[in-house]
Design goal:
This protein has 139 residues and is mainly alpha-helical. It is built from five helices and two strands. A hairpin with a 5-residue loop joins strand 1 and strand 2. It is rod-shaped.
Amino acid sequence: MKISMTILFKLREVISTLEIDEILINRKNLSDRVKNLLLEDQSLTGLSIHSVDLKDIMLSAEMKKVFTDAIKVRKEALNSLEKARGEMATLRSLANAAKMMEKNPELVKLRLIQTIESSQGNTFILDTNYQVKEVSGEK
């Protein structure tokens, strides 16, 4: 009984210094730390400890909920960050396109022609200045 209590106290000593993420991710490291503490314990003299293996980590319902909520918040934050990165890339691309069109007005005309070409169900009339007037079509 005394040995199992000593092991339990050493495990609690190690766990109390860690974040829950570390506990769940680094079980092997946790086992090694508990083993080292047990080897240093003078009250276990005469005992030979070959290994310590943590098989299961049981969390209370409240801790499971907190951990699940933390994971959810982290994923939402990563999702928001990725969305912001995409928006910044789009803005950079639009800014680059605007600079190119400012330096080369012919690009605006070419882009207009491409847009009209890909349009379906519309009729456009181009005058010689590349001004577009929509005659009929769907929105």
